[in-house]
Design a protein that fits this description.
heterodimer; A: 345 residues; alpha+beta; five-stranded mixed sheet; B: 195 residues; four-stranded antiparallel sheet; 8 helices
Chain lengths: 345, 195
Amino acid sequence: MLDHMPDARAFDALCPMHVAVNAEGRIAHLGPTLAKLLDADAEGRPFLELFELVRPRGAESVADLRAEAGAPLHFKLRDAHRTPVKAVAAPHRGGLIINMSFGISVVEAVGTYSLTSRDFAPTDLTIEMLYLVEAKSAAMEQSRDLNARLQGAKIAAEEQAFTDTLTGLKNRRAMDHIMERYLSTDGRFSLMHVDLDYFKSINDTLGHAAGDHVLQEVARILVDETRREDTVARVGGDEFVLIIHEIERPERLDAIAERIIARLEQPITWNGEICRISGSAGTSRTSQYETPKIEEMLHHADLALYASKRKGRGRHTHFTPELLELDLRQPAGDRGAPHPDLREG
Amino acid sequence: MHGLIFRGLQSFVRDTYGADTWSEVMQEADLGFTCFEAMLTYDDEISRKVLDLATVRLGKAQDDLLEDLGTYLVSHQNTQSLRRLLRFGGVDFLDFLHSLDDLPDRARLAVPDLALPWLELREMEDFSFTLRCGAGLPGYGHVMMGVLRAMADDYGALAFLELDESWEDYDAVRIVLLDEAFTEGRSFELAQEAS
């Protein structure tokens, strides 16, 4: 076959994936890399029996291919892998020389045909491309690791930002967030503001460690006495807000508040010392408003709580519009704080 | 300095001497974290500090430690991707040696902000070379010596290596290639094994 191609050796070195096709459309010579891809008897067989022309459509013979000289050609190997190859053809001695390359299918092709660096001409950028593909995926792997770790850290940070670290209850931010969500979907709920009574004296006489212990016990009681779908938040030193989901009947709310207060009044021991506290509560309900607003509901629950404190602590009051008049007699901006002469300590 | 470089040292100490040893070094370094991230950048001074602390903790000569690090980077099973990337540099060890001048550019092609100091191979006589390793990375010459030793094994070549001189702006490694095909070496398939 080499008689047809006196310069075959040069072509083999420069274009190891070339094929010489004679005037009859048969394979006269295969470059060494292309020969690796095909059966040993490939030389002499009709070119289009081994290569299926994909584009340009319509070309069906080697004569048609001569008309496409210089244009990009796309073939598929007619083997089990159907590997796509790119090609360019040049007329040569009545036939054609067609040079081929894998294009982007090279990543699979090097595996499929067990190719090595020596199968590509040194000027061919295939090896550099394979290097880049691997280098980029290794770098990407590292980035993915980092992203996964950052994601984990972000979740932990968010969790913390919504949690009161002493009691594990939700914090004020979380409470606002939950109420906003409920209100935006017309959810119904009651807002119960609970303030501990006599707590300050525990901090003063037994120290902060005792105070912290009491707060943790209180948190446990509040969680015990509410349901999963309710929210318990610690919004201040000894202030808590309960978002009681879909319960608005005053009697039921009274029952919940009474149970909580009764449990708060049970003595809590700390290092052999007995701590006694109680709680006052005030509640506002979404059903009391045409368009419930967070700030307004919180303010009204505060007024109700304040009324409980006035009536002698350890009790629960529902917000009613009459309480607003009481509010007018209080200094502005002192929401939630009991009247000075009711303050403990 | 690029996190990948710190990451290299970290994996080397962890895989060779154990995670506890690395934790101790990092506690001693008191940087406020215990783990370097590959894709972040750290202060250059940190590398000196961590390296010195690791040297003390492991009770080895720093030069030897750095050479071991270079060998680790090529030969350990946890760093196979790096070995493969280096093997793309040449079909045989000689070809690989000649590709070293391009190594910093190749690294940058993969990770644009990874700046490795320059490398320059000079052929002194037949099969005898000097590799100049530019300044900028502490112990670069020693690490490269370890890398070259492991790569020679990988290609199956027998080579003699020694640190020739350390100048202000480069370290020089002397390489004498005794036998290019001393052993079969490790095979290198262009196709990546499915992971």
